[in-house]
Design brief:
This protein has 13 helices and no strands. It is an all-alpha fold. The protein folds into two domains: about 40 residues; about 220 residues, MetI-like fold (Orthogonal Bundle), CATH 1.10.3720.10.
């Protein structure tokens, strides 16, 4: 009986498992982290904004400290505190706000009309290659011409009033816009035009649906250049002869050797150019979004 029981049960020896090296243990694969690109862009934008602000503060602090220590001659370089005091006096007792409005108005009107008419002129070259070929060298000559050198002629011709400043701002921007629009016209895909014609489109439909949208990026890219050129044209016109404007204020301050007032004009023009530049940047973004939606 005992023999039968022993034969019925077989006893096996079980070995303990060998330890597995840590390097051989397979770890679960890391899950890829999905980054929010918009959040990263917003964070980067805030960081850049704060960096720009701190750099500006540092420049003004160093400027003020150096003038107080005598490292910079306060007669020539003034100081931020003196500029702020003079600015406040000009705002409350002078005509600084009116001068800013005068210069801004001439700049913006010249910029708008110069950009719009220049873009229309450049787009019109698509209708006739002969017309475009005849006009192109003259546009290049006008673009190379130092238009600011003709400022005295325009001021004498149009007078010292507001319109001569607008005309100078217009002359600075119209040729640049025309050349930019013409570059866009020349880059239009001819196969796209042939496709539109094969589908029965008329020439004005090809112009409206293909040429204009295709050329818009070139026109938009000229806006930042044009706003700076328009401001330069208006200021030069005020330097030559004007009854108002920030440029006239700077010239007047220079004649009476009021260096603080000169620096007020310089700082105001710098701030005005920055405001106009960022306004144009916002306009570019809005127009670019419109093109993407189309």
């Amino acid at each position: 009986m005992e023999t039968a029981r022993n034969e019925a049960f077989v006893i096996h020896t079980i070995k303990a498992p060998e330890p597995v090296p840590a390097a051989a243990v397979k770890r679960p694969e890391s899950v890829p982290v999905i980054q929010d690109e918009e959040a990263i862009a917003r964070t980067r934008s805030r960081r850049i904004g704060w960096g720009r602000f701190l750099v500006a503060v540092m420049i003004f602090v160093i400027w003020e400290v150096f003038t107080r220590m005598g490292l910079l001659d306060s007669y020539y370089w003034s100081s931020p505190s003196a500029i702020l005091r003079t600015t406040w006096i000009q705002i409350t007792e002078g005509a600084l706000l009116g001068d800013i409005a005068y210069t801004s108005g001439a700049t913006l009107i010249g910029f708008i009309f110069g950009t719009a008419l220049g873009a229309l002129l450049g787009l019109s070259f698509w209708w006739s290659k002969s017309y475009a070929g005849i006009s192109e060298p003259y546009l290049i000559i006008l673009n190379a011409l130092p238009k600011l050198a003709l400022a005295p002629v325009l001021v004498i011709l149009l007078g010292i009033g507001f319109f001569s400043k607008v005309a100078l701002a217009f002359s600075m921007t119209v040729v640049v816009s025309a050349l930019s629009a013409y570059s866009g016209v020349k880059s239009v895909d001819p196969d796209m035009e042939k496709l539109m014609y094969s589908l029965g489109a008329k020439k004005w439909q090809v112009f409206a649906k293909v040429v204009v949208p295709w050329s818009m990026p070139w026109i938009i890219s000229s806006l930042r250049i044009n706003i700076a050129l328009a401001l330069a044209g208006a200021i030069v016109g005020e330097f030559i002869a004007s009854s108002q404007g920030v440029g006239r204020m700077i010239m007047y301050a220079g004649t009476i050797l009021d260096i603080n007032l000169v620096w007020v004009g310089v700082v105001v023009l710098s701030a005005l150019s920055m405001v106009m530049y960022w306004g144009v940047v916002l306009l570019e973004r809005w127009m670019s979004k419109g093109l993407v939606k189309q």
